[in-house]
Amino acid sequence: MILNDVHEGIQKRKPRKRIGRGPGSGHGKTSGRGHKGFYSRSGSSRRRGFEGGQMPLFRRVAKRGFNNAAFADTVVIINVGQLEKAFDDGAEISVDTLVSKGLVPSRHDAVKVLGDGELTKKFVVKAHRFSRSAEEKIVAASGKFERVV
Question: Considering the entire predicted model, what is its pTM?
């Protein structure tokens, strides 16, 4: 091996293959798709997990039990420390205000307030669920919490 030949012919940016530009290009006529067959047609693409007609892995593997992930509620969590930073003293915090501030995504089933962080400001917090420590911290800061259905 000659060291200065190692990188010969390797290009950082190869020009894109211009297909369907006549027989002189080397990629004319069938545009690199060959003749007939599934992949010569427009709109042809392999589906995920396709193994050339062989029984695919996800059908070969035994499946047991039930997974509730598709049906479970998406619960978004927020800590009292985040509320402390984002809101002013005496604020009324609802799910809508959390969404508008960008603290909670708009797609969710429930919002749960957890007790991580310090809380010194007085808030009225309205959410679906509260942890016991979050309830204690909100009340200790002379605030209120309300459960939304």
Answer: 0.58
Strand order in the sheet with 144-147: 92-93, 124-127, 144-147
Angle at 141 between CA 136 and CA 143, to 5 degrees: 85
Reading the chain (149 residues) residue by residue, the pLDDT tens digits are: 788 888 888 888 888 999 999 999 999 999 999 999 999 999 999 999 999 999 999 999 998 999 888 899 999 999 999 999 999 999 999 999 999 999 999 999 999 999 999 999 999 999 999 999 999 999 999 999 999 98
Domain boundaries, the chain: 74-147
Element of type H or E holding 115: none
For 30-55, give the DSSP string: TTTS-SSSGGGSTT--PPTT--TTSP
Find the angle CA(129)-CA(135)-CA(140) to the nearest 5 degrees.
Answer: 160
Judged on CB neighbours under 10 Å (0-12, 13-18, 19+), 132 is exposed
Is the domain 74-147 a CATH 3.100.10.10 member? yes
